[in-house]
């Protein structure tokens, strides 16, 4: 049985670490590399038209998984499964569903792996006991979200083998191409933000995607990576590691934890969510 996610445990310390945000683009690319996920996103997502609202809702949902308590995770899982139940269609002559067990497990797997990679790149790698605890906790959360137990490897070593073998099967697809185009052309989240400030953010995000994707998959996508790029990334990672690692875990995770608490409140007050944010977000009651 997975240990509960409470203050000081591995999932509490690492899942909401602000450095995880540096891998947001990498996670999105790896998720839509799965053909079923790619088809569902291409036909049912509005991320290219309104990426910032989509991003805020995704962050809100993620925060509930780990920091909203078991009850919060159960309600959010019911909402997500209800939402995705209608995401079906035909791609390449084959029917697909967003709730396809293997695809659903893969999306969860990318979220499990990202915080571990963030610490490897920008912090201190998790030791074996932390990895064991973290993985057990994230498997527990996956089961709450409806990921079948047989679709999650039994331990971290088996998970790494599963993850690497999945990535080795992927290649480019139209959804990945559209995602990169969105990264290059996405409008500013704040209209008055000067272009002089916004362009480095866009370029930096694309650079971080290239830097943190598995090297073989990066090459498969035709993304250039040079020794100079590697040195530049290592300098950036050193700066982040030096500045962020001394910060206590409670402060590094505070933004995500507070978002989680806020959305638990929104869940209890759905009308407030609809007035402030709009749509059926974490506060909405899922339809039967």
Strand % is under 5%
State mean pLDDT (0 to 100 scale): 85
List the total number of helices: 15
Broad structural category = mainly alpha
Characterize the largest beta sheet: strand count, sense, and whether it forms a barrel: 2 strands, antiparallel
Strand order across the largest sheet: 1-2
Shape: globular
Number of E-type strands: 2
Low-pLDDT runs of 5+ residues are 282-288
Cα distance spanning the termini:
29 Å
User: Helical content, roughly?
Assistant: 55-70%
What is the helix/strand order? HHHHHEEHHHHHHHHHH
Radius of gyration: 19 Å
What does this structure look like?
The chain is an all-alpha fold and 288 residues long. A two-stranded antiparallel sheet has the order 1-2. The protein has 15 helices and 2 strands.
Question: What's the SSE blueprint?
Answer:
Layout: H1 10-14, H2 24-33, H3 35-44, H4 51-67, H5 69-84, E1 88-91, E2 94-97, H6 101-122, H7 128-144, H8 156-169, H9 174-185, H10 195-212, H11 215-220, H12 227-244, H13 249-252, H14 254-268, H15 270-276
Antiparallel strand pairs: 1-2
Helix pairs in contact: 2-6, 2-9, 2-10, 4-5, 4-14, 6-7, 9-10
